[in-house]
Backbone:
């Protein structure tokens, strides 16, 4: 389907459950909300599933700090705040699950470079950032792997 969250091309009141993942941060909130209200059945639900980095360990704190240092925009705005605004502070059921991962250097670097707010290879600070990233990995890896602490948050809400 060639569509967006703002214009799904689905019939009005035709959807029981809308499920959104990590990409929700790309949605235009007001237009998406109008569309969700249009396509949801009266008793329909919105489900949002989101992974987020969990600071706490020395490695994770260093990783988050590296991202903040080199990011091109504000990256730490909590999804929870955006959701409350998006859902008009209606009752939100929330459950958070631990979701630890184990990354090697290649996987972790792929994760870092996938963020839209991280400098691209063409930018002058890219090589400095990558050097700092590799030093962080070298400092904290055990047998070529690091523990990467994620939480997965599940939000369920009715907006109608």
Residues:
């Amino acid at each position: 389907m060639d569509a967006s969250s703002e214009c799904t091309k689905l019939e009005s009141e035709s959807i029981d459950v809308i499920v959104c993942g990590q990409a929700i941060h790309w949605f235009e909130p007001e237009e998406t909300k109008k569309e969700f209200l249009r396509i949801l059945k009266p008793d329909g639900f919105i489900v949002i599933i989101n992974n987020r980095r969990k600071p706490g360990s020395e490695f994770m704190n260093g990783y988050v700090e590296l991202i903040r240092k080199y990011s091109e925009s504000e990256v730490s705005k909590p999804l929870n705040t955006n959701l409350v605004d998006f859902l008009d502070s209606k009752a939100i059921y929330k459950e958070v699950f631990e979701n630890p991962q184990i990354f090697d250097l290649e996987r972790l670097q792929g994760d870092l470079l996938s963020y839209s707010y991280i400098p691209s290879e063409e930018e002058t600070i890219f090589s400095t950032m990558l050097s700092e990233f590799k030093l962080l990995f070298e400092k904290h890896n055990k047998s070529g792997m690091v523990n990467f602490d994620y939480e997965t948050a599940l939000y369920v809400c009715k907006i109608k």
User: Anything to note?
Assistant: The CA atoms of residues 51 and 152 lie 4 Å apart.
